[in-house]
């Protein structure tokens, strides 16, 4: 260690010594977050098992009562995968039959959205010809908060792939409503740390507040040391207390990197696809809901199976990449 | 043979140290709270497994690794998934900030996220290049290179002030 390194160590130690956080608060809040995580895991397992049993019972009851259509009678022997939602049940079917199969067409969706459904909704909102690939299970598994559902995937509009991160989460449970402003902009966020190439988007930040208390945040920060940057758009809908955001980069993670800690980016284009207005329109789609119909989940499952995935990093346990 | 600590015992004994690492890495009092809480949340969720597998002895390294990765994950998701409450700059520094801390944190903020993490792990936590590389999921060469670049930048930013600041 040279003289400066010794000084740096002493400065870090002296600064650290000044810090006296509330240990009780950290432990209590950390424990509560852990409990929520455990409950979520167990909850998903229980819900999955319950739905499977309910669907089999429902299908069987249709056969027994004779109210099922040709489509709905079939699943009695095949389980959940083939049980169709109410669209396949005739309007004249008795209430008991329709209720036992699935909610009617006008019933409120009651299934939690999944990342697979998010992926399908994302794809449906993108311009025709959109190609999604290299879904990143490792990045998705490590969502920052228990209730946050992320999709991390590369999107190619024909002009080069872009790494996308779409997140959706409810506020008021484990997460507060974010407070957004551009007060710190341009500051650190807006400054370039690396090269800016021709065609790059100018850094910017804007927050639009709506009368209902909702807001829209759009930002383009400065480049990082490699010239990578991204478009960020985030929307808060107070009516259903939902926050949805997208990050679209002008780069992708290299396949041989360990994302995100050791990940290195490869620049793929001057500007991310769609642009801030395009992403704003996409996020404002009513398709984004925390609760959806089973048909949406099914379509998501089918679509997700067609999207390639990045390999789990070598120094990571396979469980850390398990998202199914 | 000593008995394995409970989660509360472990967390209570490590909270301040982890907070120090988190704060100097991210430079924000509230985000540091958030990072440590998230790290503890992750630890709590896997505590039974760690206990069963007798991995309690490795928890210090595990916790720091989890903290670093949470921090880097925050950085990636911080726009689309950020939930940290907005705050004024003076609130972000936390109470009783000295000139030394303010200057140091401001200088660290000029580094990229991984550069800050490397500096804190190497020069506060005294971790080896190899251990830092393992925690970050990077190669030792990448850590050496990042460390060198970060030191060069910090020398530029702090070089003239470091002696004076340490005397105060």
What report would you give on this structure?
The complex is a heterodimer of chains A (324) and B (168). The longest helix of chain A has 43 residues, at 23-65. Chain A has helices spanning 3-17, 23-65, 70-73, 95-101, 115-125, 137-141, 187-190, 275-283, 294-304, and strands spanning 111-112, 131-133, 149-156, 161-170, 204-209, 215-220, 230-237, 242-249, 251-253, 265-267, 291-292. Chain A is globular, with a radius of gyration of 24 Å. In chain A, the strands form three sheets. Chain A has a seven-stranded antiparallel sheet with strand order 2-3-4-8-7-6-5. Residues 40-105 and 256-263 of chain A have low confidence and may be disordered. Chain A is 34% helix and 18% strand. In chain A, helix 5 crosses helix 9. Chain A is built from nine helices and eleven strands. With 324 residues, chain A is α+β, with helices and mostly antiparallel strands. Chain B is mainly alpha-helical and 168 residues long. Chain B is 74% helix and 0% strand. Chain B has eight helices and no strands. The termini of chain B are far apart. The relative contact order of chain B is 0.12. The chains are: A alpha+beta (324), B mainly alpha (168). The interface between A and B is large, with 75 and 74 residues.
Provide the helix percentage of chain A.
Answer: 25-40%
Strand count, sense and barrel status of the largest sheet of chain A are: 7 strands, antiparallel
Question: What string gives the helices and strands of chain A in order?
Answer: HHHHEHEHEEHEEEEEEHEH
Q: Please tally the β strands of chain B and state the result.
A: 0
Tertiary shape of chain B: globular
- Radius of gyration from the alpha-carbon trace of chain B, in angstroms: 17 Å
Main sheet attributes: strand count, strand direction, barrel closure of chain B: none
Cα radius of gyration of chain A in angstroms: 24 Å
User: Which word captures the global form of chain A?
Assistant: globular
Fraction of helical residues of chain B: over 70%
**C-alpha end-to-end distance of chain B:** 45 Å
Oligomer: heterodimer
Number of strands of chain A: 11
Beta-strand fraction estimate of chain A:
15-25%
Report the sheet-strand fraction of chain B: under 5%
Round the mean pLDDT of chain A to the nearest integer and report it. 73
Number of contiguous helices of chain B:
8
Measured by residues with Cβ under 8 Å of the partner chain's Cβ, the largest interface is: A-B, 75 and 74 residues
Structural class of chain A: alpha+beta
């Amino acid at each position: 260690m040279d003289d400066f390194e010794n000084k740096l160590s002493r400065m870090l130690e002296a600064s650290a010594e000044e810090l006296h956080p509330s240990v009780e608060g950290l432990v209590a809040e950390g424990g509560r977050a852990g409990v929520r995580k455990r409950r979520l895991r167990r909850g998903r397992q229980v819900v999955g098992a319950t739905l499977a049993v309910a669907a089999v019972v429902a299908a069987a009851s249709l056969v027994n009562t004779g109210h099922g259509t040709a489509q709905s009678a079939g699943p009695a022997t095949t389980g959940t995968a083939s049980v169709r939602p109410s669209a396949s049940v005739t309007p004249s079917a008795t209430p008991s039959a329709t209720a036992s199969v699935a909610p009617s067409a006008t019933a409120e969706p009651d299934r939690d959205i999944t990342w697979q459904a998010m992926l399908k909704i994302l794809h449906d909102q993108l311009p025709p010809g959109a190609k999604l690939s290299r879904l990143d299970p490792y990045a998705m598994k490590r969502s920052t908060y228990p209730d946050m559902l992320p999709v991390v995937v590369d999107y190619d509009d024909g002009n080069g792939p872009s790494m996308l991160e779409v997140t959706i989460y409810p506020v008021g449970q484990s997460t507060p409503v974010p407070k957004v402003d551009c007060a710190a902009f341009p500051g650190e966020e807006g400054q370039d740390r690396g090269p800016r190439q021709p065609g790059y988007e100018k850094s910017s930040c804007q927050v639009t507040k709506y009368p209902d208390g909702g807001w829209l945040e759009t930002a383009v920060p400065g480049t990082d040391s490699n010239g990578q940057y991204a478009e960020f758009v985030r929307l808060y809908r107070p009516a259903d207390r939902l926050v949805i955001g997208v990050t679209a980069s002008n780069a992708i993670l290299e396949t041989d990197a360990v994302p995100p800690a050791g990940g290195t980016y490869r620049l793929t284009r001057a500007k991310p696809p769609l642009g801030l207005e395009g992403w704003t329109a996409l996020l404002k789609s009513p398709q984004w809901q925390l609760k959806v119909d089973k048909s949406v989940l099914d379509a998501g499952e089918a679509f997700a199976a067609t999207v390639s995935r990045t390999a789990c990093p070598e120094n990571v346990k396979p469980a850390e990449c398990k998202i199914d | 043979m000593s008995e394995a600590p409970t989660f509360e015992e472990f967390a209570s004994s490590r909270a301040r140290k982890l907070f120090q690492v988190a704060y100097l890495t991210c430079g924000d009092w509230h985000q540091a709270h958030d990072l440590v809480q998230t790290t503890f949340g992750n630890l709590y969720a896997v505590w039974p497994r760690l206990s069963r597998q007798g991995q309690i002895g490795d928890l210090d390294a595990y916790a720091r690794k989890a903290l670093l990765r949470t921090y880097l994950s925050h950085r990636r998701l911080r726009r689309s998934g950020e939930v940290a409450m907005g705050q004024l700059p003076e609130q972000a520094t936390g109470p009783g900030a000295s000139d030394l801390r303010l200057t140091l944190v401001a200088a660290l903020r000029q580094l990229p996220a991984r550069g800050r993490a490397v500096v804190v792990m190497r020069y506060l936590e005294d971790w080896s290049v190899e251990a830092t590389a393992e925690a970050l999921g990077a190669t030792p060469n990448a850590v050496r290179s990042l460390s060198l670049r970060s030191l060069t930048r910090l020398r530029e930013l702090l070089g003239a002030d470091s002696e004076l600041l340490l005397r105060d």
